[in-house]
TrEMBL record:
Family listed: Belongs to the GPI family.
Protein name as it appears in the record: Glucose-6-phosphate isomerase
PROSITE patterns linked to this entry: P_GLUCOSE_ISOMERASE_1 (PS00765), P_GLUCOSE_ISOMERASE_2 (PS00174), P_GLUCOSE_ISOMERASE_3 (PS51463)
PANTHER family the UniProt entry points to: GLUCOSE-6-PHOSPHATE ISOMERASE
Recorded catalytic activity of this chain's protein: alpha-D-glucose 6-phosphate = beta-D-fructose 6-phosphate
Enzyme Commission no: 5.3.1.9
Pathway in which the depicted protein is active: Carbohydrate degradation; glycolysis; D-glyceraldehyde 3-phosphate and glycerone phosphate from D-glucose: step 2/4
UniProt record, GO biological process: gluconeogenesis; glucose 6-phosphate metabolic process; glycolytic process
GO molecular function: carbohydrate derivative binding; glucose-6-phosphate isomerase activity; monosaccharide binding
Keywords: Gluconeogenesis, Glycolysis, Isomerase
Any single GO CC term annotated in Swiss-Prot or TrEMBL for this entry: cytosol
Pfam families: PGI (PF00342)
Top-level taxon in the UniProt lineage: Eukaryota
Amino acid sequence: NVFGFWDWVGGRYSVCSAVGVVPLSLQYGFPVMEAFLKGANNVDEHFFNAPLRSNIPVILGLLGVWNSTFMGYSTRCLLPYSQALKRLPAHIQQVDMESNGKSVSMDGSPLGFHAGEFNFGEPGTNGQHSFYQLLHQGRPAPADFIGFCKSQAPVTMEGERVNNHDELMANFFAQPDALAYGKTEKDCEAEGIPPALIPHKVFPGNRPSSSLLLTSLTAFSIGQLLSVYEHRTSVQGFIWGINSFDQWGVELGKALAGQVRNQIVESRGKGAQVAGFNQSTTMMLESYLKQSAA
C-alpha cells in the first residue's frame, strides 16, 4: 500500500518520481502527467546534449552566477505572465533556495562569496502594481519574465483594439525593455514634462532581466519550465562548488523545536519553569504557555 521511490530523489526534485506523479495522476489523469514528464525529459535531453552556447539551463545558470556573485544582486524575481502559474515562484523558491543556500564548499571549506539567491515573484500584472516600482526606480533585482504566445482563455471584446492576451503580453514585452533602457531627463524634456516632475519620471535602466517565451501553457511546457529551473539550480551549484543536494540548514531548527516541545510538555504536565533558552525565547514561551492555557 506504499508507493516507493528511489533513495537518490531529493525532495525538491521529487515531482517526477512516484511520490509526485502518483497523486498528481489521480488528480489530473495520467495522460496529462505523461505529457508533463515528456516536457521535463525534453529539457533534460536538451541540457545533456545541447552545445553550451545554446544550452538554456547553462546560460541561465551562468547569468545567475554573474548577477549574484559578481554583480552582487542577492535577490531574483520570477514573473510569469499567466495567473495559472501563480505558485511557480513559490515552487522555485524551494528548488533554488533549499538547494543552493550554502556557506561551505563540498569539502567543508568556507566559501569566499555568497551562494544562492532570495527568490520571490508574482504573476505579471499583480507584480506590476506591487513591487515593480522598486525594480524600476528603487533597488534592482534580476528578473525572469515568462510569457506564452497563445492564451488558455482568449477573450475578444467588440470595440477593443486587442484581445485580453495581447494586452497582457504588451506588458510582458514592455517591462523588460523599460528595465533595460529606462528613461532619461532628455526624454522627459522632449515629452514636455514639467521640470519639477522630471526627477520623479527618470528611470535609470541597466537593470538585468531574462525573458522566456513559450508557445502555450500546457502540461508539456510546465514540465519544460520545471526542468529548466532545476538544471539551472544545478549549474549554479556546480560552479559555486557546493552540494545542491543536501539540506542541513533546517536540522538545527528541528532540533531546537524538539527542546521547545519537551519544555511545553513539562510545563503543562508538571508545572516546570521555562529554562535553557535565551531570554527572548524564554519570555515568549512563558507568554505562550500562559495565554494558550487560558
